[in-house]
Amino acid sequence: MISYQSSSEFAQAMDALDPLAPMRNQFYFPRINGKEALYFCGNSLGLQPKSTEAALLQELEDWKNWGVEGHFHAKNPWFPYHKILTASLARIVGGNDSEVVCMNTLTVNLHLLMVSFYRPTTERYKIIMEAGAFPSDQYAIESQVRFHGFAPDDAIIEIAPREGEHTLRTDDILTAIETYKDSLALVMFGGVQYFTGQRFDMQVITSAAHTAGAIAGFDLAHAIGNVELELHNWNVDFAAWCSYKYLNSGPGGVGGIFVHDRYAESPDLPRFAGWWGNDEATRFEMKKGFHPARGAEGWQISNAQVFQMAALRSSLSIFDMVELPTLFHKRDELTGYLKFLIDNIIADFPELSYTNITPANPFERGSQISFLVGKQGRKLHNYLTDNGVIVDWREPNVVRIAPVPLYNSFEDVFRLSEMIRTYSSYLV
Ligand SMILES: *Cc1c(COP(=O)(O)O)cnc(C)c1O
Predict the structure, then answer these.
(1) Are 133 and 222 in contact (CB under 8 A)?
(2) How far is ligand 1, taken at its centre, from the CA of residue 166, in Å?
(3) How far apart, in whole angstroms, are the C-alpha atoms of residue 356 and residue 371?
(4) CA dist., res. 352 & res. 427, Å (int)
(5) How far apart are the CA of 240 and the centre of ligand 1, in A?
(6) Helices (H), 74-233
(7) CA 213, CA 76: separation in Å to the nearest integer?
(8) Which pLDDT value is given to residue 346?
(9) Ligand 1: which atom is nearest the Cα of residue 107?
(10) How many angstroms separate the CA atoms of 210 and 303, rounded?
(11) What does the pLDDT average to over 132-139?
């Protein structure tokens, strides 16, 4: 355990010891009023790697010079383009290469995977999910339920925090799975909750879902690139993610999916098919009859989104340079430092009723700390923005701060906390 100190000297000393400190220089930081911003929104949109521009220009250049021939003659041929991302993504999610493919966008992928993995019957049709899930997930799940002729109120079981608590207890999730085991079709959870920053125990949830005879799927939007994932070993059935948050692929970046290898050869599993999911050997025969490619690639629909994938590739090359345990170790130290500083402020200004709602246990969180800031919140957020800080504000009263271990420093975290402290002292 580190004994944290609230001082610039301490933060600088931590930065001097940080093996990942040089990675910061791989990214552009936005500028506010001519000064480099303090950026804490990597959970919303990751920063731009300096290498992304060249990666995109390469594809433009190849398109310029090759036209359609770029599919085979581009520096990175477009025909198999998605494959150059697979190994990097597979390492990050803890899957085999055959279990991972990048394609489409997150909510689209959730729908496509539910087509295959939410196949309700009159006996088994319920879905367990977290209350207050990201709206897109709520809409996707509700519309899937309706699509199959069920009523969301009946079919969707939402697990909420207990009275007076902000996050879920694993026991309550497991109890619900047990309670509904005879009618449960799917447990669909976030990996990390976008609002509270709570990390769920995906392994335990998966195992309970399977014991109940249900499927386990995860939305990894806030988990991928942020927390340890062992999807294959945890036996997760399917997962989907976006790449513009911790994976830094830029706005609208390409999403991805995981489908466990036990479904790798399941041509009979219903799915919405397209030519890119067809077995490569026969894809260009342009014949009738869909033959899904083996593994996750068999869920592809359209040809590779080369520009989006080029952007993601530049960021994944940075991840490739980093040992994941080193990244996660820094995450815990950096987030732990933020928690320490925020908790001090909370204790020093009781009259402001600040509340940290992110779990204290590092195993139950990732890089994000969410804290409730009461009625003054919007103004605090404005004050931070005016002073060159980019943090996320969610109505009605939450500030979400994500110190990202790939590019944030201990000094960033200390400077942010000093601004929150200064503003708070104006208020009292
Ligand atoms: C960011 C996020 C989304 C966004 O979905 P898109 O389809 O990429 O627009 C969906 N769900 C969760 C949980 C998210 O955090």
Answers:
(1) no
(2) 21
(3) 4
(4) 8
(5) 10
(6) 83-93, 106-117, 135-147, 152-155, 170-179, 202-211
(7) 43
(8) 95
(9) 7
(10) 34
(11) 96
Q: What is the pTM of this model?
A: 0.97
Type of residue found at 337: Y
Give the per-residue pLDDT at 1. 72
Report the relative pairing of strands 48-49 and 27-28 from DSSP bridges: antiparallel
Specify whether the CB–CB gap between 49 and 27 falls below 8 A.
Answer: yes
Q: How far apart are CA 213 and CA 177, in angstroms?
A: 10
Q: Please report the atom of ligand 1 found closest to the CA of residue 134.
A: 13
Q: Does the CB atom of residue 136 touch ligand 1 within 6 A?
A: yes
Q: What separation in Å is there between the alpha carbon of 134 and the centre of ligand 1?
A: 7
Atom of ligand 1 nearest to the CA of 194: 15
Residues 398-425: tens digit of each pLDDT: 999 999 999 999 999 999 999 999 999 9
Q: How far is the CA of 407 from the centre of ligand 1 (A)?
A: 22
Residue minimizing CA distance to atom 1 of ligand 1: 221
> In the β-sheet with 392-394, what is the strand arrangement from edge to edge?
355-356, 369-372, 398-401, 392-394
Asked if 129 and 159 touch (Cβ cutoff 8 Å), the reply is yes
User: Given a cut of 80, is residue 356 above it in pLDDT?
Assistant: yes
| Of residues 5, 14, 21, 18, the one with CA closest to residue 407 | 21
Q: Quote the ligand 1 centre to 257 CA distance (angstroms).
A: 13
Q: Is 221 close to ligand 1, i.e. is its CB under 6 Å away? A: yes
Distances (CA, A) of 404 to 80, 106, 211, 367, 387: 31, 21, 36, 6, 20
Instruction: Determine the residue of 107, 195, 200, 400 to mutate for testing ligand 1's pocket, defined as the one with the most ligand atoms within 8 A of the Cβ atom.
Output: 107
Q: What angle do CA 317, 318, 319 make, to 5 degrees?
A: 90
Domains of the chain: 8-48+323-427 (3.90.1150.10), 56-320 (3.40.640.10)
Torsion of CA 257, 263, 265, 269, to 10 degrees: -90
**Tens digit of each residue's pLDDT (9 = 90 or more) over 20-65:** 999 999 999 999 889 999 999 999 999 999 999 999 999 999 999 9
